[in-house]
Amino acid sequence: MTTTNTINRDMHYLQLLSNSFPTIAAASTEIINLEAILNLPKGTEHFLADLHGESDAFQHVLKNASGNIKRKVSELFAGDIRETEQRELCTLIYYPEQKIELIKATETDLDDWYHITIHRLVAVCRDVSSKYSRSKVRKSLPEDFAYIIEELLHERTDDTNKAAYVSVIVDTIISTGRADDFICALCNVIQRLAIDQLHILGDIYDRGSGAHIILDTLRQYHSWDIQWGNHDILWMGACAGNDACICNVLRLSLRYANLATLEEGYGINLVPLATFAMDTYGNDPCSEFMPRLLKGNSLDEKTTRLTAQMHKAITVIQFKIEAQIFHRRPEWGMADRCLLEAVDYKRGICTIGGKEYDMLSNNFPTISASSPNELTAEEQQLMDKLHHSFRVCEKLRKHIKMLLSHGCMYNISNHNLLFHASCPLNADGSLKEVELYKGKKYKGLELMNHIGMMIRAAFESDTEKELRQYSKDYFLYLWCGKDSPLFDKSKMATFERYFLTDHDTFKEEKGYYFQLRDSEDICDRILDAFGVNGPNRHIINGHVPVHASKGENPIKAGGKLMVIDGGFSEAYHSETGIAGYTLVYHSRGFQLVQHEPFMSAAEAIQKGTDIKSTTQLVELSAHRMLVADTDKGTELRSQIDDLRQLLYAYRHGILKEKK
User: Fold this and answer.
1) What is the distance between the alpha carbons of residues 93 and 172, in angstroms, rounded to a whole number?
2) SS3 at position 630
C-alpha cells in the first residue's frame, strides 16, 4: 500500500522515475501497458547445449526453433494444405534466399506463387507474434517493411471492408519487384519471434570446425545467455594467456584434424608448430597421435603424418606446462598428474600408484629424465610465438568478451537452475566446500559466484597482480581439477590414453553429483541452496552425452533434472546413437526434442528435409503460463508498484507534473 512515508523514503528514486513519466497521463498509460503485458502468454525459451563447433546444425536448429516453427505451421494449415506444401513452407522460412532461387528456376506462375506464399507467411507471422505486445513486435520488424508487415498482421482478408486493401498491398509488393525481399523479411521475423530467449548451457568450442561462426551468429541474435562449459573455459583461458590452455586448445584441434577455427576463424599462425614438429618428430611414426577424422573430413598421407607430429609436439609441451602450474599451486592437490615425472625413460615404464605400466611408445627427444617438466629452448621459443598469436587475436578477444558479457557459471530463469556440468557434492549429498584463492572455501551458489568473479578478474587490467596470475592459472583447474564444477571427476586421463597400454588406467571416476543426481531429494537440496522456488522447478544440465541407444533417459530425479547435451558433435553420434537433445519451454510447458544427425543445409533446401526429431512432452502446465508467471512478470509487477507510487506522489502534490 502506498503511503506518504513510503513516498518520502523513495523520493530520490521517484524523482528520477518522473523524468521518464513526467505526467499522471504518462504514468497511467505505462501502468495500463504493463498490466496488459502481464496477461500475455509466456514467451518461448529455447535450450541448447554442447554445440562443439557444429555451426551448420546449430544454425538449422536455431532457424527451426527445434521444430517449434514446424509445429505451428502444422497446426495452422492441417487439413488445408498437403504435408509436402507444409514442408516446403518450413524450408522457405528457414532458408528464404536460397529457397526462392530454387522456386524461381522451376515455378511457371511466379506471381501466383508469390500471392499464395505471402498470405501463408503472414498467417504464420501473425501466429508467432500473437504472444507479444504490438510494441515488441514493431521493434522486431525490418525498417524497410515495418509499416507493411504491421498492416498485414492486423488486417484480414476475411474482413470484407479491408479485403481489397490487403489485396492491393500484396499486389503492389509483387508489381514493384519487392516480393523476394519482402518474403525474406517475413521469414526472418518469424524466426525472430518464434523464440523469445535462447539459453546455451555451455561448450560452443572444440571438435567441430565452426565455433567462430556460431559466435558470429550469436552476435546478431536478439536475446541469449550462456552458462560457460569446460571447453569454453579452455578457450577463455587461452585468450587470457594461460599457456596450458593454449596447448589443450591446439591439441584438441589437431586430435580431430580441425584447424578451421584456429586458422580461418582466428588467424592463429601454426607454421612455427609445424616446423618444430617436423624437425623434432620427423622420424617418429606418432601412431598414437593420428587424427580422428570426422564426417566429410579427409587428409592425404603427408598431411595426416604432419598433423600427428604437431599433435604429439604440443601434447608433450602441454604435459610439461601443466606440471609447472600444478607444482606452483600445491593446494590444488594435483601433483599426481605430473606423469612425465613417473616415467622410466630407459625401460619405457610409467609408475602410477606404485604399479608399473607399459608405455605404447618411448620416444621423447625433448624430455630430460632429470628435469622432465622443463621446456627446451626451442619449445619455449615456440610457446612464446603461440602465446603472442592468441593474445593479439582481436576477433578471439571480441568473442571471449561476448561470452563474458552474456554468461556466467550458472543462471536462474523462470524457476529453472541452469549450469553446464556439476555442483560439487560430498558423499552424503551435501554441498562440497571447494578451496579458492588464499585458502578461502565456498560451496554451491557462493562457489559459482566466486569462480565467475575470478574468471573476470583474469581479464581486468586493474586486478591486483597476484590475484590476476592465480585467476589465469585457475582456468587449468576448471578444465581438469577434481572439484571443478565444470569437470568433477577423479582425474583427466589424457596422458594415460595417449601413452599407456592398460585401459584400466583410462577410467575417470565421476564425482558425487553425477552419482547422486537421479535423486529428487538431492536435486531439491541444490535448488534450495540456489534459492530456486516454485512447485515446478528444475535443474537443466548439458556436458554428459545421454546414451539413448543404451536406454538412458535424459529426464532424471522424477522430472526435477533434465540433461540436454546437444550431441551436435559427430564424435559422439556413434556413442549415443542420436544427435542429442534440445529443450523448448513455451506457455504450455516443456518439450524435449531428440534429434537425429543433421545432414546439410543444401539437402534441407533442395529436398525440404528437416532434422528428424522426436518430441517428448516432459511437463505440461495445468493452465497456459502467462508473463505474470515468469521472472519478467515479477519485474513488471515491481515496476507497476513504483509507477503507482509515482501516481500517488503526483496526485497528492508531493511531486509536480512536468509539462
Assistant:
1) 22
2) coil
Going by the DSSP 8-state scheme, the letter that residue 550 receives in this structure is G
205, 235 contact by CB (below 8 A): yes
Alpha-carbon distances of 251 from 309, 634, 658, rounded to whole Å: 11, 47, 64
Q: What is the pLDDT of residue 388?
A: 97
Amino acid at 327: H
- 624 residue type, one letter: R
Residues 6+ apart with CB under 8 A from 652: 4, 7
| Pairing label, strands 343-344, 349-352 | antiparallel
- State how far the Cα of 173 lies from the Cα of 561, in Å rounded to an integer: 49
Contact of 608 with 627, CB cutoff 8 Å: no
Kindly tell me the burial class for residue 11, based on how many C-beta atoms sit within 10 Å of its own C-beta (0-12, 13-18, 19 or more). middle
* Grid cell locating 296: 566429410
* Residues 44 and 65 sit within 8 Å (Cβ to Cβ): yes
The ranges of the chain with pLDDT < 50 are 573, 576-578
Q: Which residues face 265 on adjacent strands?
A: none
Residue for cell digits 541474435? 221
Q: What is the DSSP string of 432-466?
A: PPEE-GGG-EE-HHHHHHHHHHHHHHTT-TTS-HH
Between CA 614 and CA 612 the distance in angstroms is 7
Torsion of Cα atoms, 294 then 299 then 303 then 308, to 10°: 30
Starting at the edge strand that comes first in sequence, how are the strands of the sheet with 538-541 ordered? 410-413, 416-419, 538-541, 561-563, 555-556
Q: Looking at residue 629, what DSSP letter applies?
A: G
Instruction: Please compute Rg for the chain using Cα positions.
Output: 28
Per-residue confidence (pLDDT) for residue 310, from 0 to 100: 97
The whole-angstrom separation of Cα 224 and Cα 210 is 19
CB 199 within 8 A of CB 411: yes
Name the nearest CA neighbour of 570 among 159, 208, 247.
Answer: 208
Q: Is 20 exposed, middle or buried (0-12, 13-18, 19+ CB in 10 A)?
A: exposed
* CA 593 to each of CA 14, 48, 154, 214, 555: distance values in angstroms, whole numbers, following the listed order: 47, 10, 32, 21, 12
Helix (H, G, I), strand (E, B) or coil at 270: coil
CB-hemisphere CA count at 13 Å for 471? Answer: 21
Q: What letters, b where the CB count within 10 A reaches 16 and e where it falls short, cover 535-548?
A: ebbbbbbbbbbbeb
Distance CA 50, CA 226 (A): 11
pLDDT tens string 594-641: 877 666 677 767 766 665 656 666 667 778 899 999 999 999 999 999
| Structural contact between residues 235 and 245, judged by C-beta atoms closer than 8 angstroms | yes
Q: Which pLDDT belongs to residue 513? A: 97
Cα of 64 vs its chain's centroid, Å: 17
Axis crossing angle, helix 301-328 with helix 243-255, rounded to the nearest 10: 150
Q: Is 391 exposed, middle or buried (0-12, 13-18, 19+ CB in 10 A)?
A: middle
